[in-house]
Amino acid sequence: MVNVIGLGYIGLPTALMMASHGVEVIGTDYNADLVATLNAGRTTFKEEGLEELFAKAVEAGIRFTTEYQVCDTYIVSVPTPYDKVDKKIDPGYVVAACKTVLQVAPENAVLVVESTISPGTIDRFVRSLLVEAGREDVALVHAPERIIPGNMVSELLRNNRTIGADDPKVGERVAKLYASFCQGEIAITDIRTAEMTKVVENTFRAVNIAFANELAKVCRVGDMDVHEVIRIANKHPRVNILQPGPGVGGHCIPVDPWFLVGDYPETASFVRLALQTNASMPEYVLHRAHEAMAEYGITDPAKVGIYGLTYKEDVDDVRESPTLQMLEAQAEHLGGAAMKVYDPWVEVDVVPNQVHSMDEFLDGLEMVIVMVGHSQVKGKPEVFGDCILIDPRNVMGDDANVWKL
After folding, report:
1. pLDDT at site 332
2. Residues designated catalytic
3. pTM of the complete model
4. Alpha helical stretches, state H, 297-340
5. Considering its fold, how many domains does the chain have in total?
6. Residue 280 maps to which CATH number?
7. pLDDT of 227-262, one tens digit each?
8. How many CB atoms are located within 10 Å of the residue 345 CB?
9. From residue 328, how far is each of 14, 57, 65, 335, 337 by CA, in Å?
10. Which of 126, 150, 174, 400 could lock onto 122 through a cystine, CB 3.0 to 4.6 A?
């Protein structure tokens, strides 16, 4: 039996996928309301294919509880934030979960940490827990997740996986567990290498995005169309520049690379600069909006609205979203007045002045900052009527009323 600890964006799909492929699974979360919702037959976030996967897992016998179980395998999938001052990982959730596991785990159990962690986290914070508890019989494994909101179910099935273990035989045992559903290649390595590879994967993407974002700023100063420059440059067989945008959000790219900066501050200077470039983009978009307001004579910030709260299109995930980052910088550029915000995917109130219909949103607006290219509006500037559009993601087309980065 497998006990999945943490039933959020990663833990829940993992538990459902295993259960629907013949593994006996019990999901555990400290949030009693979340567990009650799942036991009532409802999922806790929107995701393509999740409802169908949930139904299969329930039919297969998955259970949800707030209690840790006695079983042979534990998968810890809890948040791993970072300290925004020193940039180091905050392992508190992982440590707390592992401590509780060790209180109930039988002899020779396997403890799999699936949460993304910085290289050396298990050595620094988890391995000592086994010694302190007298539980060195428990085997440690790191199996970092590799999925993205909006395509979780498909990526769980098809993406390659990495299993880091002290003992290759334990690694093979865990790899067999993941192979119950994973159709990709499963690599077995040591724990520290597995920790590093996941952080490096997200850092690689963050650096590439930062290059595109800096290129957008350079092209703006040089009076060039960055999207045309990228389109032509990418025709070179060895060039693949990503697209610039209003910032980077989600649970991986804006967070995980900071682990390297925090742990290796003297050597990860290039990574630090890239992350700082990405973090500057929400405020840069506000600057562009301020320029447009001046050109069109818009003096009242209440006539400017923000479309999109999530960090990417067609999901309900607002973690680290560029919109939330931009709202923090709003006072400096737009006088501090709260702009109206609308996102069709976000049903609960997240920020002040959030509305829940397009009609209510557009009422009285003269300008809209389109922060997310949801399918509701992508390529459809007419949806916004006569509003001037600030389009940092280049999703609205080339209408005369569209301002790009």
Report:
1. 65
2. 198, 252
3. 0.89
4. 322-328, 330-334
5. 2
6. 3.40.50.720
7. 999 999 999 999 999 999 999 998 888 889 998 998
8. 17
9. 34, 40, 37, 12, 12
10. 126
